[in-house]
Design a protein that fits this description.
Layout (H helix, E strand, L loop, with lengths): L4 E13 L10 E13 L3 E5 L6 H8 L7 E6 L2 E2 L5 H8 L2 E4 L13 H12 L5 H14 L16 H13 L5 E5 L7 H18 L2 E6 L2 H7 L2 E6 L2 E7 H6 L4 H8 L6 H6 L40 E4 L2 E3 L4 H5 L11
């Protein structure tokens, strides 16, 4: 892996005007609120958090499917939203996505052959039919599907096979960056492992860079080198994966890690769990101060007033929380599980 940043997100903000009845008029939702991070070439970078925290909106900004309200998204050192339309279209070939639902993301009327040939037709690549067919067969082989699957439709496949078709489509134009938005959450656990191993193999074979959007820390631990934890549109913490799991620095990260299922029943019974109070706040009316303070067991008075920014907390680590709560409060192991 090289040290060069392939992707940089700088202070990205995305604000939506809330639509609805009389009482919702004029409200705004800051789906992404000042997010900054970089992804190195060849890296697997995860963005994790609860549903509604802004992960998917961030993925759309990275793919230039949504324009940020403010901030920048740089790919290969160029701001995507400052590019002329023709140049952005050419650049988009290098940015691809793997969707969550492998059934709804495939056209039910198109065969696998038609699905995999469509990117070439859209971008004017491989006009020669024999060359296009050879490339389609290469893609099928790369994701573990056979030639016999070429003329089948999506309903004739299992969920795992459909996701393999989606992955093959994402690879068709030789992308450099792939955004995987909950790419295995709709699959059975046994199939999830197969798809994750396939993604790792493909990364090595095609020198891919991944941004993996997920709510599942177990999946992230298997695939990614670095993790960004997102809460209510903001980054709570970023860290190398191993360090995040061994020593979480933000109370939200600590709570998320405590909820990971443990396969050993004896360990599961004795392990302390942190049960967060309440639900994710209304994003159109976020709390003052630290956005996590209404649910944080370490919250103090200044947390209700001052909004912490992401600050360095070690090599390749940053956290949006003063260090003192973890130093002054009992360790997680000393706190009994509350259900």
């Amino acid at each position: 892996m090289s040290g060069a940043a392939l992707l940089e997100v700088r202070g990205a903000v995305k604000v939506y005007a809330e639509r609805g009845g009389l009482f919702a008029r004029g409200r705004q939702v800051r789906a992404v609120d000042g997010v900054s991070f970089s992804v190195r070439e060849g890296e697997s970078f995860a963005v994790v958090g609860e549903s509604g925290c802004g992960k998917t909106t961030l993925g759309k900004l990275i793919l230039a499917l949504e324009r940020p309200t403010s901030g920048q998204v740089l790919f290969e050192g160029r701001d995507l939203f400052a590019l002329p339309a023709a140049e952005l279209r050419r650049t988009r070939r290098k940015l691809q996505v793997i969707f969550q639902d492998p059934y709804s993301s495939l056209n039910p009327r198109m065969t696998v052959r038609e699905t995999l040939e469509e990117p070439f037709q859209i971008h004017g690549e491989l006009p020669d039919p024999s060359a296009r067919r050879a490339r389609v067969l290469e893609l099928l082989d790369a994701v573990g599907l056979a030639r016999a699957h070429l003329d089948r439709h999506p309903h004739e496949f299992s969920g795992g096979q459909r996701q393999r078709v989606g992955i093959a489509r994402a690879l068709a134009l030789n992308p450099r960056l792939v955004v995987a938005d909950e790419a295995v959450s709709a699959l059975d656990v046994s199939i999830q492992a197969q798809i994750l191993n396939l993604l790792k193999d493909l990364q090595k074979r095609f020198r891919l860079t991944y941004v993996f959007i997920s709510h599942d820390f177990s999946v992230v631990r298997h695939l990614c080198e670095r993790v960004a934890v997102m809460y209510l549109g903001r980054l709570a913490e970023t860290a190398p994966t191993a360090e995040l799991f061994s020593d979480p620095q933000h109370p939200y990260t600590e709570a998320l890690l405590s909820a990971i299922p443990v396969p050993d029943p004896d360990r599961a019974r004795t392990r302390a769990r942190i049960i967060l109070a309440g639900d994710l706040p209304d994003p159109s009316r976020p709390p003052a101060g630290c956005p996590f303070h209404p649910r944080c067991r370490y919250a103090r008075e200044d947390c209700r007033v001052n909004r912490p920014e992401l600050e360095p907390a070690g090599p390749e680590r940053a956290v949006a929380c003063p260090p003192r709560p973890f130093r002054d409060a009992p360790s997680p192991a000393a706190i009994p599980e509350r259900i």
